[in-house]
Amino acid sequence: MALRNIMTEGEPCLGKHCRPVTSFDERLHTLLDDMAETLRRSDGVGLAAPQVGILRRAVLVLETNVPEGEEDYIIELINPEIIERSGSQTEPEGCLSVPGVYGMVERPDYVKVRAQNRDGETFEVEGTGLTARCFCHELDHLEGILFTEKAEHILSDEELDEYYNSKHGED
Ligand code: NI
Questions:
Q1: Which of 71, 138, 143, 158 is catalytic?
Q2: Checking DSSP bridges between strand 46-48 and strand 73-86, what pairing results, if any?
Q3: 126-171 pLDDT, tens digit each
Q4: N- or C-end of the chain: fewer Cβ atoms within 10 A?
């Protein structure tokens, strides 16, 4: 496995529509393995192929809604599409391609995604809360859309601190 460079805002590859994956071969597996290592190192919750300069419909989402004591795990989604959505949440959102910037973005609270795995088999997966947000955010990358285009408001450092302090207070 190898780390890949994460492209940042302004790189043309982040604004492009990505093509479907058609070959579920060693090259795809290497890409996914590299993306997983890159995601783990960067402490993010999701990564899309265009963020590492590959204009193909492949994303990773970190499932963090796991039972106490269990490890987060990465879901690989090839040629994903959202087939169900419900509810609404508006929370701060960030992106490894837009470092240091957080904005309030409205997303569904629940989504169901249909995708293929690395061997081309179709499956469905559900996500709620942060995971639903992450599915939506990563799928947007495949259309060349960054969260900054959808944010209702970009947070100042003070607002971000306030937000997390108030959240922490609720726990
Ligand atoms: Ni992103």
A1: 138
A2: unpaired
A3: 999 999 999 999 999 999 999 999 999 999 989 988 888 887 655 4
A4: C
